[in-house]
Specification:
Helix content is 62%, strand content 10%. By secondary structure, it is an alpha/beta fold.
């Protein structure tokens, strides 16, 4: 329940929509119950008036019945509209909150989870929390309020009938849901876990399909998927059986309640303490009241699976960042000089990547970092961005980066990573991520310096051309230049470029290097490269190898 409370606290800003949906639900149930009760009373009173010849004013109750019928229809539509709006707004808040919690965990913490698992938690587990309000919180609250009001109304007419109805409602609304909720706990939690495993396995199988076929493991992977799918179907079938049992129990309770109210009301009519038409009203009112009880059993049945989804999300979101923000972060320094002293780092259960590494970049200096693949150049970038923890000292402007707020530090740095991500939107939108407030002149300058202007001019849609998911609609070199333009548009004081000209032909590479040399003058720049042409950007070249740096002046 702590997990559910934590998730609800995230969506607390939507409480007005949630309360509105619940109140409309109570009003609709009340309108339906009163409509049934008034209809029974009206028919019985009309029949009694016809037999006795007594005068009966039927205009007002007839108008009330029609008004209640209209309100029930309109109110049900409004209740669906408001409650689904509340659920969708809640999911939107949860996604934003979860993404913000995950951002500082990448890449170090998220490496412990498979890509399919993270994607499943972000999408399917968050989608599953739609049940938290729509099918758990709202039905339970609405049913409780409606049952309380219904019992007070029946008690005002016939206390024995109210007691009989209370027993049936408590059985259907509390005892039966508790039983079905207990029965559904194990298969519900199992179904949630199996669904997550199945999503992860299918995603990883699709991503590694070529390797699976080459290694002859495709059939084994398919068999594993079939096994998980069969287990998931079995768990879902158990849940369906429990749901059927719940619905059958609710129908039985409704029938028993109607019979008990009929007997108690008949005794009251015989004793002369209740008018005969009120008996028909009570029986129909009791039957209509079970509209509030039906969803309550289903709510407790869904509770275990929803709780498991909440637990999966919290396990991801509450993971500790590799370098947490200090309680009292220092102000950003004025200088952009970078100093590494005794830097050591190792991946879990692996040999050290760095062992007492020393490196200095003066303010305004451009340094090229070269070395063989796997020597830790890209890892160094992740450490500078505070994506990974380290031993030793890493200072910017004389301030240890651990003492700075991560967002402020990253705002000081513009980075072209080794594997930049392109979003499934236009070229313009991907570049403007670097600086959403940039004007047209700044955007065009970034395009020219990244070597994109002539290529974009040949596209029919120009900057509005969509790059596709992960940038699959553009080539690797074009995608890298889009990411380079994004990094340049940010115009930060420190610029880190990891293989900025990879995928470019020789002519384009020479043009881009020349533009970058002019654009980065006066900035503190770290260029990581294997390409000799990029060395023209640097004032100094540093070779990184065997967990040590060997400085080499140009």
């Amino acid at each position: 329940m702590r997990a559910i409370g934590r998730i609800l606290s995230v969506a607390a800003g939507q409480w007005r929509w949630m309360v509105g949906g619940i109140l409309l639900g109570v009003l609709v149930i009340a309108a339906n119950s009163i409509l049934m009760a008034l209809s029974g009373w009206f028919i019985a009173s009309m029949a009694l008036a016809g037999v006795t010849g007594a005068h009966f004013e039927y205009f007002f109750p007839a108008a009330a019945i029609r008004g209640l019928a209209i309100f029930r229809t309109v109110g049900r539509y409004g209740e669906r509209l408001v409650s689904h709006e509340a659920a969708l707004r809640m999911l939107a808040d949860l996604r934003v909150w979860l993404f913000r919690r995950l951002e500082p965990l990448a890449p170090a913490v998220l490496e412990r989870f498979s890509g399919g698992d993270v994607a499943g938690r972000l999408r399917a587990d968050v989608d599953a929390l739609e049940n938290l309000y729509l099918r758990i919180l709202a039905p339970m609250t609405t049913g409780t309020l409606a049952i309380g009001a219904a019992l007070l109304f029946v008690a005002s007419l016939c206390l024995p009938a109210a007691l009989a109805l209370a027993c049936a409602l408590l059985t259907a609304g509390i005892v039966l849901p508790l039983i079905t909720g207990h029965l559904a706990r194990a298969p519900g939690e199992s179904a949630t876990e199996l669904a997550g495993e199945l999503r992860s396995m299918v995603t990883e199988g699709l991503q590694g399909a070529e390797e699976l076929f080459l290694l002859g493991a495709a059939e084994r992977q398919a068999a594993a998927v079939d096994r998980l799918s069969a287990e998931l179907v079995a768990a879902q079938q158990k849940l369906a059986g429990i749901a059927a049992l719940s619905q059958a129990g609710n129908v039985i309770c409704a029938g028993v309640a109607a019979a008990a109210v009929l007997l108690a009301g008949a005794a009251a009519v015989g004793a002369g303490t209740m008018a005969p038409p009120s008996l028909a009203m009570l029986v129909l009112f009791a039957a209509a009241t079970f509209e509030a009880v039906g969803p309550m059993a289903g709510a407790l049945q869904l509770l275990p699976g929803t709780t498991a989804a909440c637990d999966r999300l919290l396990a991801l979101s509450e993971a500790r960042p590799p370098v947490p923000d200090p309680s009292l972060p220092l102000n950003l320094p004025q200088s952009t000089a970078i100093s590494l002293r005794g830097l050591s780092f190792a991946y879990r259960d692996d040999e050290p990547v760095f062992d007492a590494l020393d490196l200095d970049l003066a303010q305004g200096e451009r340094v090229a970092l070269v070395g063989p693949s796997g020597c830790g150049k890209s890892t160094l970038v992740e450490i500078l961005l505070r994506f990974r923890d380290y031993q030793g000292s890493v200072r910017v402007g004389g301030v240890e980066i651990r003492d700075l707020a991560a967002e402020e530090l990253r705002g000081l740095i513009s980075c072209l990573p080794q594997r930049p991500h392109l979003f499934n939107t236009s070229i313009r939108a991907n570049i403007l991520i670097g600086n959403p407030a940039a004007d047209t002149a700044e955007l065009e300058e970034a395009l020219r310096d990244a070597g994109l202007s002539s290529w974009v001019a040949t596209l029919p849609a120009g900057l509005e051309t969509a790059v596709g998911e992960g940038g699959r609609e553009v080539s690797g070199g074009e995608g890298r230049r889009i990411a380079l333009a994004r990094a340049l548009l940010k115009n930060a004081a420190i610029l880190i470029l990891d293989e900025p000209t990879e995928g470019m032909d020789a002519v384009t590479e020479q043009q881009v290097v020349a533009r970058l040399a002019r654009r980065t003058a006066g900035k503190t720049v770290l260029v990581i490269t294997h390409r000799p042409a990029c060395l023209a950007l640097a004032d100094r070249v540093v070779t990184l190898a065997a967990r040590r740096t060997i400085g080499r002046e140009r």
